[in-house]
Design goal:
Helices cover 21% and strands 19% of the residues.
Amino acid sequence: MYAKHGLIDYCISFINYTKEEDFIGFDWWVNPREPIPNWTDCDPRPIKLIKIHGSLNWKFCKCCSETLLTPWNSHMNLETGELTRFDPRWFDEGENMTLCPRDGYPLSTMIVPPSYSKSLRHPVIQNLMYEAQKEIRVAKKVAFVGYSFPDADIHIKAIFNKNLRDDSRLYVVNPSLNKISKEAYRGLSKNITFIEKDFLSAIEDGLIEELIA
């Protein structure tokens, strides 16, 4: 979608990458983990976006264990999971997309709710957690932007405690930090810098330069 800037790598496989001739509207998607086309005046790089809590526009089929990326939906019924107003090249205007285009099995929204009771056993979520852990293990700098570190995300704290390097530098960009949230971050590392501004103000004030250097 953004070939001049980069290819978004969600670190999972999508039905959208298929080369099957019957899947009109899907086969043009480029898999950033495979050799990419030779575009004129473009030299894109894959950019990882690891959404370890899933996404509202990811639909999972329990029959074929495939995930469908739905980037064009403009309306979603959160109770039924139905999506409407897709690109007309896929379906008729206004038609709901609730069935897997491969086997006709009902699709389910793949997302982990922000609650204390959550399941992380979904195979796709587990793969994303493994991918996140690999990135944390090699990261020299880690930035938390606008994240309050809620108690419900104890699994996030666990993967950082297990994988964060001793020499990694942490940055927390958040204008609404309190004593409790600061202590939660200090539990991860002593090498930490708090930037108590919103992200745009932090950029304008030059406080992000050290982070990206």
